[in-house]
Design brief:
Number of strands: 11
Number of helices: 17
Largest sheet: 8 strands, mixed
Distance between the termini: 37 Å
Strand content: 15-25%
Strand order of the largest sheet: 3-2-4-5-9-10-1-11
Length: about 350
């Protein structure tokens, strides 16, 4: 790749087959961290994974310092992760660090770094993950109960995302593993069940404050590609330098795609996610608590009736999942009804 520029969108994947094999997409995040660790640009990386402890599914964020550990933590989490608390503990760490986080977490991390120069000097780069909403820890617990999976026997959960499907790989304490369909599980997330409260009003999905933003790319030409690609947006000088160096040394395959081209393909989902006015109206209709700050922020935005209905369904499912009897009702329903609900929400969001 001859030229890589800030705030342009590229597509690519790690050249390391083992990294790709253990990652959810093209292995770009693990590839970048592995490269920086090998080149001694960093001494460690803060990464996250899903585990089961005391019969409860949760996520952990840890500072790792080997390529083997990076492979162990590779893959998507789709759950709330304690990244910020791990960054705060860098006071006691003597070395340079990379951090992988979601857009909302990065905003909090940037504030922390501005107020704590000691930690600021240790964080070399922040890699942001595209995010369309997260779920609470209870999401997996309830879903696995429905699927009759003993959470006490789980040692790790890894998600490998595909275009139409994907796998939830459940590693057991007895070294066995079980696989579930990611698509079937994801219908519950799309429907708003166990959505994280802070995500209800988030409208920044592409990790704008990261040094490198990474996410899936599902345009027609990459849906059928033998090797799954990722979207990559360098957003700072160090982001550009790392990607250029990796490309020059064949550590990653990277090609220009164009941010304008990406927005053209995904303009409907971006419009759905960025307009807060439709959400504000839907929240009022479903009895969800609102605030003046949101009302002021979305004052000049347009109204889309289809989006209001879509968000109303999402908020209703969210509210139902917040109660004990509501959760019982939702998870005793045949999966077909949740799928129909999620598909309807998706269809309405595309208008």
């Amino acid at each position: 790749m001859k030229k890589i520029t800030v705030n342009e969108l590229y597509v690519g994947y790690s050249s390391n087959e083992n990294i790709r094999k253990n990652s959810s997409s093209g292995g770009v995040v693990t590839g970048v961290l592995t490269y920086m660790l090998t080149e001694k640009i960093i001494d460690g990386a803060i990464v996250s994974k899903i585990i089961s402890k005391d019969n409860k599914v949760s996520a952990i964020s840890e500072l790792v310092s080997s390529t083997e550990e990076l492979i162990e933590f590779a893959g998507s989490s789709y759950i709330d992760t304690p990244v910020l608390s791990t960054v705060k503990r860098l006071d006691a760490y003597d070395g340079k660090v990379a951090v992988v986080a979601l857009p909302c977490q990065i905003r909090a991390i940037r504030k922390l770094l501005n107020n704590n120069q000691k930690i600021n000097k240790k964080v070399v780069i922040i890699i942001g993950l595209f995010c369309r909403g997260n779920v609470t820890n209870r999401f997996y617990d309830d879903y696995f109960v429905k699927g009759k999976i003993d959470t006490g026997s789980i040692s790790k959960i890894k998600i490998k995302r595909g275009y139409l499907d994907g796998k939830v790989i459940i590693k057991k304490t007895n070294e066995n593993h079980e696989e579930l369909s990611f698509k079937k599980m994801n219908f519950y997330r799309i429907a708003g069940i166990h959505a994280k409260t802070l995500c209800l009003w988030c409208h920044e999905h592409l990790a704008n404050e990261a040094d490198i933003s990474v996410g899936d790319i599902f345009t027609p030409e990459y849906r059928k590609h033998e090797i799954k690609h990722s979207s990559i947006i360098p957003r700072s000088k160090i982001g550009v330098e790392i990607l250029k160096s990796m490309s020059d040394k064949n550590a990653t395959v990277i090609k220009y795609f164009g941010l304008a081209n990406y927005i053209k393909y995904f303009r409907k989902i971006e419009n759905f996610g960025s307009n807060l006015k439709n959400r504000y109206i839907a929240a009022k209709l479903t009895g969800l608590k609102n605030n003046r700050r949101i009302k002021q922020k979305c004052k000049s935005q347009s109204i889309n009736v289809f989006h209001i209905i879509s968000w109303s369904l999402f908020f209703l499912n969210y509210r139902i999942s917040k109660t004990k009897y509501g959760r019982c009702f939702l998870y005793k329903m045949p999966s077909f009804f949740i799928k129909a609900n999620a598909v309807f929400i998706k269809i309405l969001s595309r208008f």
